[in-house]
TrEMBL record:
Protein name (database record): Shikimate kinase
SUPFAM superfamilies in the record: P-loop containing nucleoside triphosphate hydrolases
Cofactor binding note from Swiss-Prot or TrEMBL: Binds 1 Mg(2+) ion per subunit.
EC category: transferase
Catalytic activity: shikimate + ATP = 3-phosphoshikimate + ADP + H(+)
Pathway this chain belongs to: Metabolic intermediate biosynthesis; chorismate biosynthesis; chorismate from D-erythrose 4-phosphate and phosphoenolpyruvate: step 5/7
Residues holding Mg(2+): S18
Length: 312
């Protein structure tokens, strides 16, 4: 039996990753994450504009940053951007958590798909699409060989492709780990995936509030929006809203942090009020917990002088 957390779709531009990702997630009742949409949400710009603004190198770094977080999700279908063939080392790390499906299509099909939206893909040479796509397909070839499963989407119906994936999962006996329980906080995974992918990222010059596209939100009636660890808005299936993926842990941490802060503030004001003297002193209070001096506020000084007057 093979145990994974999620399904990740990789492949060249226009191969159909986003299209199948959305459909597969819907079919399985899982969360759908498209790293392109995550980045668009984070920057508040379309992919082509992000490229223009930060450059390719920074874009790939940002994408890797998203990838190392989302690969830890449970029961999610993750579609990755198609701008570069994923490197062997990176794929090895991603494979630990994800069942990797390589999505591919014949050159003529990809050409017709990418031509539907000219300008959407920033590194595409729209003046020479055939040659570009040909070279791109060549560079992806060795990567497809390393995938758990490869789906050719040149001809056929989306429904049938979904069925092929389901059949393959059964044949290969792939099981998906359920989401963690709230108190099951295995932060080791987060650290190790992050470190490994960081390392890979620094070795190559390649590849979060996830703003939902309207279609994502409205296509799936079972989805709502929540935040992940990177403050990324993600589509969450209502049926699974009890999930506690890494995004929930992030929220818990934030909440914890806030509470301790609030508690700290409470202690601080208490110690200051105890130290208050009718004379008002030099205008400074010492916090006995932190031993730091704090200048009294104008209001505090005013009250002190009022108190001292009424005492006399
Ligand atoms: N099997 C299919 N049947 C019909 N249309 C499809 C199919 N697969 C993809 N498409 C269409 O082709 C276009 C490109 O597909 P999609 O955006 O899913 O590719 P992608 O692999 O996510 O590309 P990128 O890497 O650029 O994000 C879209 O308009 C999509 O609707
Ligand atoms: O041209 C590019 O580099 C890109 C095109 C799209 O496939 C996106 O999926 C990708 O993230 C960037
Ligand atoms: Mg896509």
């Amino acid at each position: 039996m093979i145990i994974k957390r999620n399904i990740m779709l990789i492949g060249s531009m226009g191969s159909g990753k986003s299209h199948f990702g959305r459909n597969l997630a819907e079919r399985k009742g899982w969360q759908f994450v498209d790293t392109d949409r995550v980045l668009e949400g984070r920057f508040g710009l379309p992919i082509a504009e992000i490229f223009k603004k930060i450059g390719e190198k920074a874009f790939r770094r940002a994408e890797m940053d998203v990838l190392k977080k989302v690969c830890l999700y449970h029961e999610a279908v993750i579609s990755v951007g198609g701008n570069f063939p994923i490197e062997h080392r990176t794929l090895k790390v991603l494979k630990k958590y994800s069942y990797i499906i390589g999505i591919r299509a014949a050159q003529f099909r990809i050409v017709s798909r990418v031509n539907r939206r000219i300008g959407k893909r920033p590194t595409m040479d729209y003046n020479n699409v055939h040659a570009f796509v040909h070279a791109m397909i060549q560079s992806w070839k060795p990567v497809y060989k390393q995938c758990d499963f490869v789906l050719d989407t040149t001809n056929g119906r989306t429904y049938d492709f979904m069925q092929r994936i389901e059949d393959e999962l059964v044949t290969s006996d792939v099981q998906f780990k359920a989401r963690r329980q709230p108190n099951d906080t295995d932060t080791r995974d987060v650290k190790s995936s992050s470190q490994e992918l960081q390392l890979n990222n620094s070795l190559r010059n390649t590849k979060d509030n996830h703003r939902l596209s309207k279609s994502e939100r409205f296509n799936n009636p079972n989805t709502t929006i929540s935040n992940d660890t990177v403050g990324t808005k993600i589509v969450v299936n209502k049926e699974h809203s009890n999930r506690v993926g890494s995004h929930k842990l992030g929220n818990d941490k934030r909440r914890k942090h806030k509470t301790s802060n609030q508690a700290g503030k409470g202690r601080k004001s208490e110690s200051i009020s105890k130290q208050r003297t009718p004379q008002g002193g030099s205008g400074y209070e010492k916090n006995r917990n932190t031993n730091k001096r704090r200048r009294r506020t104008w209001n505090e000084l005013r009250h002190q002088s009022a108190n001292s007057k009424s005492n006399t």
